[in-house]
Specification:
single chain, 17 strands, alpha+beta
């Protein structure tokens, strides 16, 4: 990388284009417009399709105030390419004044490293890039400090100087993104010198946020402030969502659940500080794999709806109808007859029941020990698309194994035990219920 890089983006494009991968699903949930822009820019910068690139690291180099930055890139391909094909791709004049040789093409230069690796960058930085092979890039100490603590194998890592983005936001970003960007920068605050955010999609969704604090701010102070701000995000989002009025039912449901998704993210986030000599605060979040696409889709839909929402208007007062007596609460049987939409795709068992509980207003808890004793886990995936069905049909669908292929008449079938006190269910297993003298609820 040439000197002066202040923003680093490291990603594994082939994984985001690998059919059936969680990373691919996450990418799909970001929307067609983003995907077209994403793929088009990668092809334009590198000459290769995203699926052909194992690793792409971009270094953004700011210039004069108000000017678009320069971009340098390091590319590792999934398959070897002959040197002849690579040189054809560069379509540039070979300059032998450097070691290794550099190919100049327009305002860009290319360096062929081996049959799977090459770099590109600004033509003016050709010598600097040749000199930088095998050495650390020259950049600010705050960027270098976080680079040393980053992991190149994470599916996506973004590392940047927040003050630079604040200063150059109108130059680097299109106008529709500025409001969202400033919300992020306001959350980070002025006490952060550099920030890295890494995402990884495997059997779980893993998020890791690292921040280098300003020396005048203690790590503990920064950690406390940011955790408090993170805990406030779901409530702020709820206030924003209540002002929105999506026209489509599906979008309305997803946007309505987005604050709860953010709440789950905040509750699952653990904070910590680095060694005494380090200026480092870290927040780690580990969630079920389904959280990744759900958060991506919720973010995109809520942001899109926000562009059509007037947040300065006063909320419309709710119309109340006088009644001689309060509305009678629904009985359990009436709640079980309500229709809900069921489309579970690799949804954890506990999340599937939590969704049904939220939609039906029937409290549902899982007896993890009883279920585990007969082979069920709370994270076992549910794959079940029933469409619009009653709550009872949804519960029976899980219990009868439609989502996880459990034989319905096996002795370890799930059962629901009704709790008079909570007016809800406990999900258990038949052997445990029998041993404890509990009578499984009989659905009518």
């Amino acid at each position: 990388m040439p000197p002066g890089v202040r923003i680093v983006i490291n990603l594994h494009p082939a994984e985001f284009w690998r059919e059936g991968s969680l990373a691919e699903e996450f990418r799909f949930c970001l929307g067609a417009a983003f995907n077209d822009w994403f793929a088009g820019n990668i092809k334009e910068m590198t000459g290769f399709e995203p699926a052909q690139i194992d690793r792409l690291m971009l270094g953004i180099i700011p210039g004069l105030r108000g000017e678009m930055p320069q971009v340098a890139g390091f590319i590792e391909l999934t398959e070897p390419q002959s040197k002849f094909e690579m040189i054809k791709l560069f379509q540039g004049e070979r300059i032998n004044d450097y070691e290794p040789a550099i190919y100049m093409s327009g305002k860009k230069c290319f360096i062929h490293i081996d049959d799977k690796t090459f770099v590109f960058g600004p033509q003016a930085d050709a010598q600097n890039m040749a000199d930088a092979i095998g050495t650390d890039a020259v950049t600010s100490g705050d960027i270098t400090a976080l680079l040393a603590r980053s992991d190149r194998d994470r599916h996506l890592t973004i590392l940047f100087d927040p003050k630079l983005l604040r200063l150059e936001q109108e130059t680097y970003f299109p106008e529709p993104l500025l409001a969202a960007l400033n919300h992020v920068l306001d959350w980070v605050g002025d006490d952060v010198r550099s920030l890295s955010w890494a995402l990884h999609f495997d059997r779980q969704f893993h998020s890791e946020l690292k921040l280098r604090n300003d020396p005048v701010t203690t790590k503990l102070s920064l950690q406390t402030k940011l955790k408090k701000r993170l805990d406030e995000v779901p409530y702020r989002m709820l206030a924003a969502v209540e002002m929105m009025n999506p026209s489509q039912v599906g979008k309305r449901k997803l946007i309505g659940r987005f604050p709860a998704m953010l709440k789950a993210f905040a509750l699952s986030t653990l904070g910590g500080a680095g060694k005494i000599e380090d200026q480092l605060v870290q927040f780690t979040t580990v969630l079920h794999e389904r959280a990744a696409p759900n958060l991506a889709l919720g973010t995109v839909l809520a942001w899109d709806e926000s562009t059509r929402t007037d947040f300065n208007r006063s909320p419309t007062p709710a119309t109340t109808v006088a009644s001689a007596e309060p509305a009678k609460p629904l009985t359990l049987e009436e709640k079980l007859k309500q229709k809900i939409e069921i489309d579970f795709r690799k949804t954890a068992l506990q999340d599937a029941f939590a969704y049904i509980a939220e939609e039906s207003k029937i409290p549902i808890v899982l007896d993890g020990d009883a279920l585990k004793a007969v082979g069920f886990t709370q994270n076992m995936n549910q794959d079940m698309n029933l469409g619009a069905v009653t709550v009872q049909e949804a519960l029976l669908g899980i219990m009868k194994g439609k989502g996880h292929k459990i034989i319905s008449d096996a002795p370890d079938t799930m059962v629901m035990i009704y709790n008079e006190e909570t007016r809800g269910f406990t999900v258990s297993a038949l052997p445990y219920a029998t041993d404890q003298g509990f009578k499984p609820y009989e659905f009518k």
